[in-house]
Write a structure and sequence with these properties.
This protein has 23 helices and two strands. It is mainly alpha-helical and about 500 residues long.
């Protein structure tokens, strides 16, 4: 009986690994077809200009970041790294592709790390990893992943920063669970990643601080005995303060605020509206069925994610804390009432935060059920049947199949299979090469008659008006007077 159980467990692990690979393979492969887009030209040219002006890439990047900090926003980490890395101007398209692949790989590594640390059972850890990557790539609204996966500015500014946040969480948990020199190492690593993550956009900064604080609240007994465990949270909080008080944030908020949406109370009201509406966009049928499968697996494998047991009060605190995280994540985006709802990359970033935290709630809820309703654990056949039915519904329900068909994974897969990704990339490569070869100081006008439409890749942002911001940024990058792209 035990032998059969191990065999089935091994089969389940293999299936989970294959599903994880199936979900992430095409989005990761898609990074090899990316190209400069929108703000990428500005950061490449700005970083190059700073390195020449100050005779140092590091000093130049720091000064450019300081200028942005004063006039536009406080996101010190991505601003500095954007100007410092400059993958295209340093290494061409191969270097650009390597950078994009690396950002996504670091994020995925952080997903694996946090799942394996929080949940000791390897089978359930794999199930959680699958749930997380499904949330990111294959559920509703993941078509918006284009910005956070294939646009260098936002891939570095959000996806990589999210990876830093998850690593900060991982090492913070490890610092609590270990003693001696290991704790010191984990505290240092957690503090570094927490500080870096707090230099991201304010939406992610809010989540970073809340998550780091949650570790201390959940393990408050350890904190009482070893007060130095608070250091990673302090590092993240200091970074958040540096970010939040940036003069550029106030300049930007003043320029974009809509009358009637300017006060703190207006911001709170708008945030509730945005967060409430976005929650139901995040919790689609695939997410609900995935959560049911996770709960059943956690009960079957007797998973304990919170040491010391989960009382009803503690479970309510976790749920309440997660809802607070949803609110504070939406607040920086909703404040000012610019749209009345979250859209574009702001929407998908909020949806990802909701899904990731609700997966944690589902795992905790499974532990609470098992601890307080012993009969639930005995219904193994019922739990296995629930898993089977949930999987079947995901595969056969028209609504779930429609969601999968419209997902980022499916869109990228179709682009690669149809050749649209290659066709689009070749045209973009031709445009960039033409700019490179054009004589310095000239007006470079390119006519592009070819179809560059894809389902999952962004546009370059350069158009027919040479005075557009992207056109001028491209001209600065390539040393031209103006750049123009004409299409039929």
């Amino acid at each position: 009986m035990i032998k059969n159980s191990k065999i089935w467990d091994g089969i389940l692990k293999a299936v989970l690994v294959l599903l994880i690979v199936a979900v992430i393979a095409t989005p990761v492969a898609g990074t090899m077809f990316t190209f400069l887009s929108e703000d990428d030209f500005s950061y490449e040219s700005g970083g190059l200009e700073g390195s020449v002006l100050y005779q140092s890439s590091i000093v130049g990047s720091f000064m450019k970041t300081a200028n942005i900090y004063k006039s536009q926003q406080g996101c010190y980490t991505p601003m500095f790294l954007d100007h410092l890395f400059r993958p295209y101007s340093r290494f061409g398209m191969p270097g650009f592709h390597f950078a994009m692949f690396s950002y996504v790989a670091i994020f995925l590594a952080s997903v694996f790390a946090v799942s394996l640390v929080l949940i000791k059972n390897k089978t359930v850890s794999l199930a959680v990893i699958l749930a997380l990557v499904l949330s990111f790539f294959t559920m509703s609204y993941t078509r918006l992943d284009t910005d956070i996966m294939y646009w260098h500015t936002e891939t570095l500014g959000y996806t990589l920063m999210l990876g830093f946040m998850l690593f900060a969480l991982t090492f913070s948990v490890l610092s609590v669970r270990n003693n001696g020199y290991k704790t010191v190492i984990y505290i240092i690593l957690s503090s570094v990643f927490a500080f870096l993550a707090s230099g991201a956009s304010l939406t992610l900064v809010a989540v970073n601080c809340a998550v780091m604080g949650a570790v201390l609240i959940i393990d408050y007994k350890e904190l009482i005995e070893r007060k130095f465990l608070v250091i990673p949270f302090v590092a993240g909080f200091i970074g958040a303060l540096i970010n939040a008080v940036a003069p550029g944030n106030f300049v930007r908020a003043g320029d974009s605020a809509v009358p009637g949406h300017e006060t703190l109370l207006d911001g709170i009201r708008d945030t509730f509206t945005c967060a409430f509406g976005s929650f139901f966009k995040a919790v689609d049928i695939i997410f609900i069925l995935t959560a049911i499968i996770l709960i059943a697996l956690c009960i079957l494998y007797r998973v304990e994610v919170i040491k010391g047991g989960l009382s009803g009060i503690r479970m309510l605190i976790i749920l309440g804390g997660v809802l607070v995280i949803h609110f504070i994540e939406a607040f920086p985006a909703a404040y000012g009432g610019k749209t009345g709802q979250l859209t574009g990359h702001l929407l998908i970033e909020h949806i990802i935060a909701v899904r990731f935290t609700m997966i944690f709630v589902a795992v905790c809820f499974a532990q609470w059920l098992r601890e307080h309703f012993s009969k639930v654990e005995m219904q193994k056949n019922v739990l296995k049947a629930a898993c089977a039915v949930a999987v079947l519904l995901i595969l056969v329900l028209p609504v779930s199949r429609g969601i999968i068909h419209d997902s980022f994974t499916a869109r990228t897969c179709r682009d690669i299979r149809s050749g649209a990704a290659v066709r689009s990339y070749r045209v973009r490569e031709y445009v960039l090469s033409t700019f490179e070869m054009a004589e310095d100081g000239t007006d470079c006008i390119i006519y592009v008659p070819w179809d560059t439409s894809t389902e999952s890749f962004p546009g370059m942002g350069i158009g027919a008006d040479s005075e557009w911001f992207e056109n001028r940024s491209a001209a600065n990058l390539f040393g031209l007077h103006t750049t123009t792209i004409l299409t039929p």
